[in-house]
Automatic annotation (TrEMBL):
SUPFAM superfamilies: FMN-binding split barrel. This is FMN reductase (NADH) RutF. The keyword Flavoprotein applies. The keyword rRNA-binding does not apply. Pfam families: Flavin_Reduct. It is an enzyme of class 1 (oxidoreductase). Catalyzes the reduction of FMN to FMNH2 which is used to reduce pyrimidine by RutA via the Rut pathway. Belongs to the non-flavoprotein flavin reductase family. RutF subfamily. SMART domains: Flavin_Reduct (SM00903). Its EC number is 1.5.1.42. Residues 21-166 form the Flavin reductase like domain.
């Protein structure tokens, strides 16, 4: 039986889905870009690896977000995974604060693409957007990793049950 032959079944309600997804913990990331369309950044937990050959990850971005056209037009981004002390910066990049004030709150470098790399991030993935898939309200940005930078920080920041939590390498043991 192919996917096109499957029977249509009812879907869960939006709020029930959102509540269930709050129990799916994820690393907190600041996604940044800089290029001809301008400089922009936003907070995201919807980031995951796709494959290591070639090194590829995905980022989900709501098409109604004010930053969406900047990412679409620049074609490059950097995924900056926050360390445990990044909750305030995450909140800043997740709100309605001006881009100038967002970027002024931290120190930045660049790698291959020119997208801002957060100093002190656990890891930063400098990427080229190679594909975009539209699903519902969001675009899934498929991103090939051009370069990366890692820090020696031992604690990361996660989003779980609608709040920030820290984790460390020791927690995994």
């Amino acid at each position: 039986m192919s996917l096109h032959e499957l029977p249509v079944l009812p879907h869960v309600e939006r709020e029930a889905f959102r509540d269930a997804m709050s129990r799916l913990g994820a690393a907190v990331n600041i996604i940044t870009t800089d290029g001809p369309a301008g400089r922009a950044g936003f907070t995201a937990s919807a980031v995951c690896s796709v494959t290591d050959a070639p090194p590829t990850l995905l980022v989900c971005l709501n098409r109604s977000a004010s930053v969406w056209p900047v990412f679409r037009d620049n074609g490059y981004l950097c995924v900056n995974t926050l360390s445990a002390d990044g909750a305030d910066l995450s909140t800043l990049f997740g709100g309605k604060t001006s881009m100038h004030d967002r970027f002024a709150a931290a120190r930045w470098q660049t790698l291959a693409s020119g997208s801002p790399l957060l100093e002190g991030a656990l890891v930063s993935f400098d990427c080229q957007i190679t594909q975009t898939l539209s699903v519902g309200t969001h675009d899934i940005l498929v991103c090939e990793v051009l370069a990366l930078a890692r820090s020696e920080r031992a604690q990361g920041l996660a989003w779980f049950d609608r709040g920030y939590h820290t984790f460390s390498r020791q927690d995994a043991r």
